[in-house]
């Protein structure tokens, strides 16, 4: 699987701050989603090299985390690899 | 937690096999715990995670029992445009570090009120989407092996023609190519992840590629270049270069956004 960043996960659980990330790889998005409680596998769809990703497929589950603060938290991730969809 | 995902861009991600609508909210079905989403290149993902308990308490205290039924029966909702804009602005304020989170919960409650809603979807997977979800799940669980279409057909209990048809329709690529892309993603990630290298007991690109079912150096080099636009050695170099990694970084950018989980 492509997600292994536990420290980042702990950080957002502890701070519960809005989280904003840029991702340019499948593991990058997977790690970001893991940080807010989603155990997701992500694959980049036919990248065609320098043209960037043509898309991403995300599959997984919402992790129930009893230690998570009940405060609402906010998350945004932006694909920086495929920022030019027409490319 | 109730994940609430907004789509505010012209891009229309595919959630559980269905292209989502503008001015819509997704991923909140209290009874669904799995996700299957396709994002277009350049996607923006924006999610508000609201405590389900708090939300239910709020709905109960305000007598919005029908709204509770919405989140228990539906996974997507087409909102009134004005309600959608209000909710989007509140979430944006939160992401910029201001605003009151309680207002988001109240806005969601109002937006999901049956008399405000313009349509809902249950999130139930269609036949094709269910098959593709199984295919993708199999791909992620079995990254160490290549498989033939015949064996795949027997493994996920679907005909070869059905797998090919739905895969082309969903991903514009065949099932074998899709599974290979999943394995290539794993190989691509491994050089920058000591944990993965330790888990699989490999630390050279060739060993890692072999672990993920790429036995031929030449074929792997070609596939890797086609997928990521670089040679395997360039991947390794980039992974080991100081300051370069696949980890996410913070950005400050006005949100356009969109998403869908579950």
* Order of neighbouring strands in the sheet with most strands of chain A: 1-4
Give the total of beta strands of chain A.
4
Q: What's the Cα radius of gyration of chain A?
A: 14 Å
**What is the chain-wise order of helices and strands of chain B?**
EEEEEEHHEHHEHHHHHHHHE
Strand order of the largest sheet of chain B: 6-1-4-7-8
Assign an overall shape of chain B: elongated
Counting H and I runs of at least 4 residues, what is the number of helices of chain B?
A: 12
The global form of chain A is: flat
Taking the sheet with the most strands of chain A, its summary is:
2 strands, parallel
Of all chain pairs, the largest interface belongs to: A-B, 64 and 70 residues
Order of helices and strands of chain A: HEHEEE
Quaternary organisation of the protein chains = heterodimer
Structural class of chain B: alpha+beta
Number of domains of chain B: 2
Q: Assign a percent range to the helix content of chain A.
A: 10-25%
Span of the ends, CA to CA of chain A: 29 Å
Overall average residue pLDDT of chain B: 83
Low-confidence stretches of chain A: 1-14, 83-87
Give a nutshell description of this structure.
Chain A is α+β, with helices and mostly antiparallel strands and 87 residues long. Chain A has helices spanning 6-15, 26-35; strands at 19-23, 38-45, 55-62, 73-79.
Characterization of the model:
The complex is a heterodimer of chains A (about 90) and B (about 260). Chain A has about 90 residues and is α+β, with helices and mostly antiparallel strands. Chain A has one domain (about 10-80). Chain A is about 25% helix and about 30% strand. Chain A contains 2 helices and 4 strands. In chain A, the strands form 2 sheets. Chain A has a two-stranded parallel ribbon with strand order 1-4. Chain A has a two-stranded antiparallel sheet with strand order 2-3. Chain A is flat, with a radius of gyration of 14 Å. The N and C termini of chain A lie far apart (about 30 Å). The relative contact order of chain A is 0.27. Mean pLDDT of chain A is about 65; it is low at about 1-15 and about 85. Chain B is α+β, with helices and mostly antiparallel strands and about 260 residues long. Chain B has 2 domains: about 1-120, no CATH class; about 125-240, Arc Repressor Mutant, subunit A. Chain B is about 50% helix and about 15% strand. Chain B has 12 helices and 9 strands. Chain B has helices at about 50-60, 65-75, 80-95, 100-110, 125-140, 150-155, 160-170, 175-190, 195-200, 205-210, 215-230, 230-240, and strands at about 1-5, 15, 20, 25, 35-40, 45-50, 75-80, 120, 250. In chain B, the strands form 2 sheets. Chain B has a 5-stranded antiparallel β-sheet with strand order 6-1-4-7-8. In chain B, strand 2 and strand 3 form a beta hairpin. In chain B, helix 5 runs parallel beside helix 8. The two termini of chain B are about 10 Å apart. Residues about 240-260 of chain B have low confidence and may be disordered. The interface between A and B is large, with 64 and 70 residues. Strand 3 of chain A pairs antiparallel with strand 5 of chain B, so a sheet runs across the interface.
